[in-house]
Amino acid sequence: MSLKIILLLVLIMTKLFGSEIQREYVVSVTLYGKIGSASYKEVKNGKNYGLFLNAKPTSFIRAVSGIKKVQYKSIGHIAPDGRYIPVFFSELTLKRHEKKQISYFCNAEKMSITKKTHIEKKVLSIDVKHLFSKKRQYHTEIEDKSKEIDYADNDYLTLMKNISLFKKGEIKYMDQKKTNKLYLISKEKNFYKIKVAKKKKKYFIALKTDCYGLLEAETYKSFKFGNAYIKTVNTSVK
Fold first, then answer.
1. N or C, which end of the chain has less CB nearby within 10 Å?
2. pTM of the full structure
3. C-alpha–C-alpha distance, residues 52 and 219, integer Å
4. With 0-12 CB in 10 A as exposed, 13-18 as middle and 19+ as buried, what is 38?
5. Which helix (H) or strand (E) holds 169?
6. How wide is the angle at C-alpha 81 spanned by C-alphas 78 and 82, nearest 5°?
7. How far apart are CA 19 and CA 187, in angstroms?
């Protein structure tokens, strides 16, 4: 079970014009029960916004996947029609011996995106003097790379912030793989259905919202382990 599923479930669609909104979610799968939790925060300052999402697996999922937590950040401005336009987006994944940060610098006017990847890995040192040591010795290897990618209007977090403005059909998003497709198949008041299609599989997500944003979500026709669920457990508005 990838933590990407937690992100896909936390499709925030908040329309409240407060300065700060925070929500806590619990995520579960039919067979396993609770698999993790996620916290979301939205901050507005005039026409500028900040969206923050932190996802953490349970100890069992952490042991299986090696992932300790994933953090997402989107910063940008709000257009007159209410559309969220990202200027900067980042994804930070922390594993037991690895830290990976992917940052996207967006320019809507030039329709360009620069993707920068920074990876830090702790690698076991192979040194004769440490062969008989009870304590393992590690050193850090660093990798940095940068490239230009195809422009897209939305990152993972603004994707569903803007869903009310989308027409039914395919939705494009930042750094999208050619084998991954996302479709809005139905939209009604406070209820949306989304189809996620990958190379050899597909599944659907049903979303229910309230005036603060996502209230609950459920996947269906998805995993051999059962459907995944997300529910709100706490809401704070400042």
1. C
2. 0.81
3. 23
4. buried
5. strand 169-170
6. 45
7. 27
